Amino acid sequence: MTSLKKVVCLVDGEHYLPVTKSAIDLLDSIEHMEVVSVIFIGGTEKLRSGSEEEYAELMGRPVYFGPHTDEIPYDLIRDMVEKYQPDLVMDLSDEPVLDYTKRFKIASVVLGLGVTYEGPDFKFDPLTQYDVLKKPSLKILGTGKRIGKTAVSAYAARVINNNNYNPCVVAMGRGGPEEPEIVQGDEIEITPQFLMEQSDKGVHAASDHWEGALMSRILTIGCRRCGGGMGGDVFITNMKKGAELANTVNAEFLIMEGSGAAIPPIKTDKEIVLVGVNQPLMNIENFLGPFRIGLADLVVLTMCEEPMASEEKINHVIELVKEINPDAKIIPTVFRPKPLGDIQNKNVLFATTAPDSVKKVLVDHLESEYGCKVIGTTPHLSNRPLLQKDIQKYIDEVDVMLTELKAAAVDVATKDALEAGLEVVYCDNIPLVISKEYGSLSESIIELVDAAIGSFKSKSTN
């Protein structure tokens, strides 16, 4: 027997009231649908004065009014969704009460409560979240691509491992394997030659789980995904199988790592959300950026430096995050390269995904901290033809190819460098907090891990 699908309707006073009631009655007449309440979200100055009780009697179901202003009652919508626990929020309002921006804000509120938000020609479903993990866990997700998610994930994994929590990372990527793949980063030596062997077998050896295994020296599990929706869902992924595999391996704490703006479809105890402050402000504060931020227990702001983001923009994003998610801890950071091998007194070609605008900062850091001479740089790890041109330009002048493990780092950068007789050294990116006033990132991660373990134990005993 199919249960009733409960519906909360959003309406406005711009419509002639009998028309609104007719639409609600039609929705209510559909088999298995029950309209449990109606919220007037604007345009109420067009209605005759009357109490919510009087309008409830007229509409035949509970009615709620927002303030008689141009402000959309987002808090009222949240309160009524929490009160009635509907399966669907149906939007029967229209311009001028709602525009695109306001509808996306409503979507962020409703999706954040795990409820579908629908209108005449749109539908936003809540995230797919499989409840399959049998160990305490957290997920790492982001508001976009190229904001340092894998670097923060690798850093978090090292911090967690160094504090003896024995973690495993499950990562999904657009170049991941057909079946979830275990990489024993804690056991095998991952050399450039080893990665070339994997690449020659057809493995995408620069995929995120290989990077995590190399940088953190822990067990990782690689998965694949295709597509990414506005809310973060994917079209296909084998991450559920990867998560189930993680239940069986020798690990005590699990990290689910997102891909681009795609969110791991696995329910976890806690969430870390990365916000790239270099992103257009519109993408952070509009659309479904607030939805992602609202998921966070810890927000890590990345790229917090000129020329990628001004001090004014950084402060604006911090205040925005506080407004959207006042309970989340916020830590602003910058990235700095850290070679995994010795490059002292060597001439280096540095391959990175960082933009040219921060090249001097990164080069100065490498030369001052690691005693090398950076002869050339290339920002084209994600563009194979341009990467090859840059390598050919500098290959006779350098001793070392220093490269992040991204995109074409193995099949082009490592391959061409080894064939030319160069040493290949891989490079990590370390998140550094921009000011002591924000606290320690490593301590914040461990605090979140402890909270996740506490949440898991509480859930397990109930």
From TrEMBL:
Keyword Nucleotide-binding in record: yes
Catalytic activity: (2R)-2,3-bisphosphoglycerate + ATP + H(+) = cyclic (2R)-2,3-bisphosphoglycerate + ADP + phosphate
The protein's Enzyme Commission number: 6.5.1.9
GO BP annotation list: gluconeogenesis
Coiled coil (residue ranges): none
Keyword NAD tagged: no
HAMAP family per record: Cyc_PG_syn
Protein name: Cyclic 2,3-diphosphoglycerate synthetase
Species of origin: Methanobacterium alkalithermotolerans
